[in-house]
Specification:
Elements: H1 5-19, H2 21-33, H3 37-43, H4 57-68, E1 74-78, E2 87-92, E3 99-100, E4 103-104, E5 107-111, E6 118-119, H5 126-136, H6 142-166, H7 170-174, H8 183-196, H9 198-211, H10 213-216, H11 219-224, H12 229-236, H13 257-267, E7 271-277, E8 285-290, E9 306-310, E10 315-319, H14 327-340, H15 346-376, H16 385-414, H17 422-443, H18 447-471, H19 479-483, H20 485-509
Antiparallel strand pairs: 1-2, 1-7, 2-5, 3-4, 5-6, 7-8, 8-9, 9-10
Pfam families: PepSY_TM
Transmembrane segments: 12-36, 144-165, 194-221, 350-371, 392-411, 427-443, 450-467, 487-506
Biased composition (Basic and acidic residues): 100-111
Length: 532
């Protein structure tokens, strides 16, 4: 690291971005998809696509739980929302078998919001798999996976800061792009994608580290609270206590709609959740929560405007909104909400998604720039083992991951719905496809290998909506897909991915950029003392 500050930062920027760059690409791409985690999960459960909410949905869910679990310890009804048109029913059986390791295991079911029929969607991890892979990887012990992701995120933060210091003309470079110039084009693309969403890149990296502050820096919690981090969260996010004992059997209200209408009229928002503790007992409590105005500093769960009734429907308590959290809790909520976009409406979520794509492109172009720069230094010589290895790993991390995601979505439609362990087979298909691309990339770590994987990438992403068309009634050309816009949007994004891969194939298949001939050295002018 000899030289001045900028030269030292350039060295740091290069190696902090390269050493864990392959993992960072996977984190960025899967994290970007997580902005539409619910929509992906909905697309991957076509059995739910016929559900349409109605005014009678709360009563249908109420009656269904009365039949399904009359003696449960608790009920929970998640009413249909914009991102999920089905009603989700949850309940906790009041049996010793339901307690597992000190935590009570609950049951759940999906209900058609229009008919009250219990639906049986195919087993699938849906968007949750990609979301959890983003920060927990897969098949790795959770604590080690989170540590590895935190280290990679810290390297990303170092790369961002050192990159800003390195580029003296960073904003001027943003408006400069020279296509077809090889290494110079990759540098221009890297600079443009880095500057375009620089505040987003810094925010998403720093907030990701702050979310794991308990893992990275637990000493303050341990010093300030007797129970460590648990004491901190119990203080800033207190839980509502539930009566530990069941009361005597007693009838509850049979029609929940008047209570739902009362809550909606009181707060001016649609009802979202109905929670009942000790249903059909004399100490039953019914809580009806409505939507709340999104705010950056509000807690992720809880705090919704709520009316609390007893089992007979008498009003017991009014909770107008979230409590006034302490400053540490509000700061933590701010970072979590920014990172996960919990506050975002659809337009803002799409904006975050586009910024995530730009961030992925920034990481990808940086890795490709490293290979391009060293390839030009060969001057016609064959690349060595190290360069071939990095090029192969780049291929597997970029096109390989995207191929694996396309295979994951295609497997959701092609695997039999009744297959035992079906959700595990979807995930196996993902990793088997990724492994195949890695083997291919290490076998053919050159331009021909890139062309083959780009062709496969375009074909697979194009195949996903085609398979959807052949296997479901909620494809791009059906009214159901457009009634639930997320279904049509998913197929359109697949077509966009196929088009992008096809364009990349066309550019790579074209003639390589011509090298600019070296300038002839100008003859040195003779000085007066040298003239004869």
């Amino acid at each position: 690291m000899k030289g001045g500050l900028r030269q030292s930062m350039a060295w740091l920027h290069t190696w902090s971005g390269l050493l864990l760059g392959w993992l960072l690409v996977a984190i960025f791409i899967t994290g970007t998809s997580a902005y539409f985690r619910d929509e992906i999960s909905f697309w991957m459960a076509p059995e739910l696509h016929q559900s349409v909410a109605s005014e009678a949905t709360p009563q249908l869910a109420w009656a269904r739980l009365g039949e399904q679990a009359p003696d449960a310890r608790a009920w929970d009804i998640i009413l249909p929302q914009d991102r999920s048109p089905v009603a989700e029913l949850r309940w906790q059986p009041d049996t010793p078998e339901a307690a597992e390791g000190g935590r009570r295991r609950g049951e759940r079911a999906e209900m058609d919001a229009g008919t009250g029929q219990i639906l049986e969607p195919r087993a699938s991890r849906g968007g949750d798999f990609l979301y959890r892979f983003h920060f927990e990887l897969y098949g790795v012990p959770r604590i080690w996976a989170r540590w590895l992701v935190c280290v990679a995120t810290m390297m990303m933060l170092v790369a961002i800061i050192s990159g800003v210091i390195t580029h003296k003309k960073i904003f001027k470079d943003f408006f400069t792009f020279r296509p077809g110039k090889g290494q110079r084009s990759w540098l221009d693309a890297h600079n443009a994608t880095a500057v375009l969403a620089l505040p987003f890149h810094f925010m998403i990296t720093y907030s990701g580290l702050l979310i794991f502050m308990i893992l990275l820096m637990p000493w303050g919690f341990n010093a300030a609270y007797e129970d460590g981090w648990r004491g901190f969260f119990n203080e800033v996010f207190p839980r509502q206590e539930q009566s530990a004992n069941a009361g005597a059997p007693a009838a509850m209200v049979g029609d929940i709609l008047p209570l739902v209408n009362r809550a909606e009229a009181r707060f001016g928002q649609p009802a979202q959740r109905i929670s009942v503790s000790w249903p059909n007992r004399d100490n039953a409590r019914i809580e009806i929560s409505t939507a709340k105005e999104p705010a950056l500093t509000e807690r992720r769960r809880g705090g919704s405007p709520t009316l609390v009734f007893d089992g007979r429907g008498e009003l017991l308590e009014t909770r107008p909104g979230p409590p006034d959290d302490a400053a540490p809790a509000r700061i933590y909520n701010l970072m979590v909400n920014l990172h996960l976009a919990h506050f975002a409406d659809p337009a803002t979520r799409w904006l975050f998604f586009l910024f995530g794509l730009v961030g992925s492109a920034m990481a990808v172009t940086g890795m490709l720039l490293w290979v391009s720069k060293r390839s030009q230094q060969l001057r016609g010589r064959e690349p060595g083992f190290n360069l071939r290895l990095v090029n192969g790993l780049n291929m597997a991390a970029i096109t390989g991951l995207l191929i694996a995601m396309a295979v994951y979505f295609a497997a959701n439609r092609l695997l039999p719905a009744a297959l035992e362990g079906r959700e595990s087979w979807e995930i196996r298909a993902f990793f088997l496809a990724w492994l195949a691309t890695l083997i291919h990339a290490l076998w053919r770590p050159h331009r021909r290998g890139w062309l083959e994987q780009l062709a496969a990438l375009a074909a697979l992403w194009l195949a996903v909506p085609v398979i959807d068309l052949a296997t479901t009634d909620s494809h791009l050309f059906s009214a159901i897909a457009w009634r639930h816009g997320a279904l049509a949007a998913f197929d359109l994004v697949c077509l966009g991915m196929a088009a992008g891969a096809g364009y990349a194939f066309w550019r790579v298949a074209g003639p390589p950029p011509a090298r600019k001939p070296a300038r002839a050295s100008r003859p040195r002018r003779a000085t007066a003392g040298e003239s004869s």
